[in-house]
């Protein structure tokens, strides 16, 4: 294993860029290969078998790029296919659900927690299990929000339709007097401002992207895997369809140019 090798980060589409953005800030000398399966997004309304098959294919691709670490930057994949990814990977695998759960329980004031995510993530109950493993006393209320991913992929981050949709989805969990709301999908941090506004200022929003970046930086440090070069890092972005669309939304979100978004043909 060479320290200068890249970190492989993957998601079904652009959502994992929230993890990339946090990683760029937290680990500024690490090379990153990002994979977004833009041809097949959304995953969150698909079956476990299909999601696992896609995740396996992406893992193979990233391992061929000789990454030193894999980050599952998609809650849906983490919820239903994490074991499949871990079982085929010779390099460490980190996932956003564990990162998010650890972030929730680190707050001593958290008691009643709302989780929002894709139908696959919510139906798997993976978040509730991960949180209750660390803190069995926490009460958890979950809500699937299937329309959020297409709205984010469309770039409607502060649009009246998105706001109405958010009110509709959040009302039942807000009625449970939650103190914490977990954005259990890596697309949702793109809606953070809008969601905070709908939830109100007293509810703490947990963004697993930031937690993921902290956990990654610690792992690299502890295992001596961090890239000591101090040189400007290389960032590659690979997608399975319409690179231009990914580039446009990605540039807006990351606040930097993405000149070479590569189209992957399997
Ligand atoms: N961004 C992904 C997640 O964190 C899912 C989006 C999708 O449905 O493909 O769950």
Model regions low in confidence, pLDDT < 50 over at least 5 residues? none
Strand content: 15-25%
Helix content: 40-55%
- Rg is 17 Å
Placed side by side, the strands forming the largest sheet appear as 4-3-1-2-9-10
**Mean of pLDDT:** 95
**CATH architecture name of the largest domain:** 3-Layer(aba) Sandwich
* CATH class categorisation of the largest domain: Alpha Beta
Overall number of domains: 2
* Secondary structure category: alpha/beta
Number of strands: 10
Order of helices and strands: EHEHEHEHEHHEHHEHEHEHE
Question: Which distinct ligands sit in these coordinates?
Answer: D-glutamic acid
- CATH fold type of the largest domain: Rossmann fold
Number of helices: 11
What does this structure look like?
The structure is a single chain. This protein is α/β, with parallel strands linked by helices. The protein has 2 domains: 7-95 and 210-263, Rossmann fold, CATH 3.40.50.1860; 98-207, Rossmann fold (3-Layer(aba) Sandwich). 46% of the residues lie in helices and 17% in strands. It contains 11 helices and 10 strands. It has helices at residues 17-26, 48-64, 75-88, 96-105, 119-124, 126-134, 148-153, 160-174, 192-199, 208-223, 243-254, and strands at 7-11, 32-36, 69-72, 93-95, 112-117, 139-144, 180-183, 204-207, 235-239, 261-263. The strands form 2 sheets. Strands 4-3-1-2-9-10 form a 6-stranded parallel β-sheet, sandwiched between helices. Helix 3 links the parallel strand 3 and strand 4. The longest helix has 17 residues, at 48-64. The chain is globular, with a radius of gyration of 17 Å. The model has no long low-confidence stretch (mean pLDDT 95). D-glutamic acid binds next to helix 3.
């Amino acid at each position: 294993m060479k320290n200068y090798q890249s970190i492989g980060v993957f998601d079904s589409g652009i959502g994992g860029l929230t993890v990339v953005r946090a990683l760029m800030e937290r680990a500024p000398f690490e090379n990153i290969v990002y994979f977004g399966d833009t041809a097949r997004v959304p995953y969150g309304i698909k079956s476990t078998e299909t999601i696992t098959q896609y995740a396996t294919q992406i893992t193979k691709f990233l391992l061929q790029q000789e990454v030193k670490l894999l980050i599952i930057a998609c809650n849906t994949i983490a919820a239903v296919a994490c074991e499949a990814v871990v079982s085929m990977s010779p390099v460490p695998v980190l996932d956003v659900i564990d990162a998010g759960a650890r972030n929730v329980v680190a707050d001593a004031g958290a008691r009643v927690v709302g989780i929002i995510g894709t139908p696959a993530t919510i139906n798997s109950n993976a978040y509730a299990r991960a949180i209750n493993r660390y803190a069995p006393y926490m009460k958890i209320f979950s809500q699937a929000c299937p329309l959020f991913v297409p709205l984010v992929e469309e770039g409607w981050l502060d649009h009246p339709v998105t706001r109405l949709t958010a009110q509709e989805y959040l009302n039942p969990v807000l009625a449970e007097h939650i103190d914490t709301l977990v954005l259990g999908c890596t697309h949702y941090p793109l809606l953070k401002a809008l969601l905070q506004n709908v939830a109100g200022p007293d509810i703490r929003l947990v963004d697993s992207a930031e937690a993921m970046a902290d956990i990654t930086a610690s792992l690299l440090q502890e295992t001596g895997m961090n890239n000591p070069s101090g040189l400007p890092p290389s960032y590659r972005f690979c997608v399975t369809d319409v690179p231009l669309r990914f580039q446009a939304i990605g540039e807006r979100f990351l606040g930097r140019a993405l000149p070479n978004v590569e189209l992957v043909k399997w």
